[in-house]
């Protein structure tokens, strides 16, 4: 690919945009004979969705605006089959007529495409209105473009995002759902393979009679401001604004971008992180396509099939998997973030205070059924002293006097042939609180030896491993613990 030219010149109406006739069956192959292992759309019970999200815990919110979002999205996992889901919870007044909501959801739920984060079901109980969709583990385009930590999104991946979104819109159009509400970078998600998908939530309004756009008015199609109605041309306008996001790596108002384009200030529009990574012709053509989408008059904008034709011709590194283009290791297990109990979450965050509270409340119930092999001599001479040591340790643990707790628990463990994974777990946390992660890890591992299927032992190992800087091992151990938790729930 050639380096960029510093003084690119082009007219607003290009002569090199490909003819619609080039939209051939080759371009449509992605939509044919899709093998999607998805269940049919169904109605979920409210209690089932509460269980999947820990009663809509704030820890499970995945909306980028958190609790402040008008309609909050949660992640959750179904008890029955372990499937990860995303749940959109509408404001209580959004859909007062449950039948209208259900009919609309059922219509969207008939769509099935690998270019969509598909709708799996909904829930209408009382005032609750919820949509249930596939969970996408690799976050949104907004985060990948505007808030990247490691490296910017590659040019080839940006082109792929644009093409896949055009394919998603074309598929929806072919099924009679050509209207998409508030298309923006928050609506673009990355699946387990890092392929971009369009959220199905935008195929429904935010309410039966409410606004279709929630973004800043500077990004709203001009005709929508006049009529309040979404049209296929409005969707293309929003697609053009999204192309600007991909080109610039910023959320630039279309009017400002068009001024730059007309003034041939190409470099001011382009993301500086893309320097030298695309050819002059490719950059020019994508800018031209964006400008056509953003024309003030709806009839001057291209249709979706025209978008597909142009974007197909621009694709680079076609054989490279999306996760490779995004430098993300491919998941070998279920979609990331296996389910975590509050203890697992606390250990993943290294929230030692929360871990302490949870262990304190749990008490010794996990020790029940663990055989205590007490010798006759210990029973006759040392049992009371041993139990007093544990009692002293528990008192110190409750009062957060971790030095005394370590001493007392050590006396208990060394006082005889007593098995107590709970004492080991408590002493493990005491060591973490005392900045002794190696000792904490040893205790958590010993607790696992005594009780091999105890998630707490794995979670505490993960906390110790995180403290030691062994993040990869820690994440794997968290997964092991959560898998054990999940098996327990299914028993």
From TrEMBL:
Query: Record keywords: Coiled coil included?
Result: no
Q: Which domain of life is it from?
A: Eukaryota
Could you tell me one molecular function GO term of this UniProt entry?
protein serine/threonine kinase activity
Localization annotation: Cell membrane
For membrane topology, the record states:
Lipid-anchor
Q: Does Transferase show up as a keyword for this record?
A: yes
User: What does the UniProt keyword field contain?
Assistant: ATP-binding, Brassinosteroid signaling pathway, Cell membrane, Kinase, Lipoprotein, Membrane, Myristate, Nucleotide-binding, Serine/threonine-protein kinase, Transferase
Look at the named UniProt entry and state the broad enzyme category this protein falls under: transferase
The Enzyme Commission number assigned here is 2.7.11.1
Example of a GO cellular component annotation carried by this entry: plasma membrane
Which reactions does this protein catalyse? L-threonyl-[protein] + ATP = O-phospho-L-threonyl-[protein] + ADP + H(+); L-seryl-[protein] + ATP = O-phospho-L-seryl-[protein] + ADP + H(+)
* Family stated for the protein in its record: Belongs to the protein kinase superfamily. Ser/Thr protein kinase family.
Q: What name does UniProt use for this protein? A: non-specific serine/threonine protein kinase
């Amino acid at each position: 690919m050639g380096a960029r030219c510093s003084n690119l010149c082009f007219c607003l109406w290009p002569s090199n945009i490909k003819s619609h006739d080039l939209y051939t069956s080759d371009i449509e192959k992605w939509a044919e004979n899709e093998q999607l292992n998805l269940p049919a759309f169904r109605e979920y019970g409210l209690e089932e969705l509460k269980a999947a999200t820990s009663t809509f815990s704030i820890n499970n919110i995945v909306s980028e605006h958190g609790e402040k979002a008008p309609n909050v999205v949660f992640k959750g996992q179904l008890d029955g089959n372990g499937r990860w889901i995303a749940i959109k919870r509408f404001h209580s007044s959004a859909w007062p007529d449950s039948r209208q909501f259900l009919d609309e959801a059922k219509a969207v739920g008939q769509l099935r495409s690998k270019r969509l984060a598909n709708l799996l079901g909904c829930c209408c109980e009382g005032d609750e209105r919820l949509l249930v969709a596939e969970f996408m583990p690799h976050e949104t385009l907004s985060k990948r473009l505007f808030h990247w930590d490691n490296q910017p999104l590659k040019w080839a991946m940006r082109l792929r995002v644009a093409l896949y979104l055009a394919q998603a819109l074309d598929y929806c159009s072919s099924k009679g759902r050509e209207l998409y509400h508030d298309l923006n970078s928050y609506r673009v998600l990355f699946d387990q393979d890092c392929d971009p998908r369009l959220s199905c939530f935008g195929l429904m309004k935010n309410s039966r009679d409410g606004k279709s756009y929630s973004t800043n008015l500077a990004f709203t199609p001009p005709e929508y401001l006049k009529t309040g109605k979404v049209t296929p041309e409005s969707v293309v306008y929003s697609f053009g604004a999204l192309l600007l996001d991909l080109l610039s790596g910023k959320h630039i108002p279309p009017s400002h971008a068009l001024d730059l384009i007309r003034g041939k200030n190409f470099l001011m529009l382009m993301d500086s992180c893309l320097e030298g990574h695309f050819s002059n012709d490719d950059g020019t053509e994508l800018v031209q396509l964006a400008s056509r989408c953003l024309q003030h008059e709806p009839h001057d904008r291209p249709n979706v099939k025209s978008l597909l034709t142009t974007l197909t011709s621009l694709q680079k590194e076609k054989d490279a998997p999306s996760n490779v283009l995004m430098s993300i290791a491919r998941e070998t297990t279920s979609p990331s973030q296996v389910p975590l109990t509050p203890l697992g979450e606390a250990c993943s965050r290294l929230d030692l205070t929360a871990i302490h509270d949870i262990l304190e409340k749990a008490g010794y119930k996990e020790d029940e059924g663990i055989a205590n092999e007490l010798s006759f001599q210990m029973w006759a001479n040392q049992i009371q002293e041993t139990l007093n040591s544990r009692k002293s340790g528990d008192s110190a643990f409750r009062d957060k006097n971790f030095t005394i707790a370590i001493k007392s628990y050590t006396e208990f463990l060394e006082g005889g042939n007593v098995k107590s994974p709970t004492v080991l777990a408590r002493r493990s946390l005491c060591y973490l609180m005392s900045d002794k992660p190696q000792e904490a890890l040893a205790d958590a591992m010993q607790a696992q030896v005594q009780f091999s299927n105890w998630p707490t032992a794995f979670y505490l190992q993960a906390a110790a491993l995180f403290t030691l800087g062994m993040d990869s091992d820690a994440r794997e151990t968290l997964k092991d613990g959560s898998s054990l938790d999940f098996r327990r729930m299914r028993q």
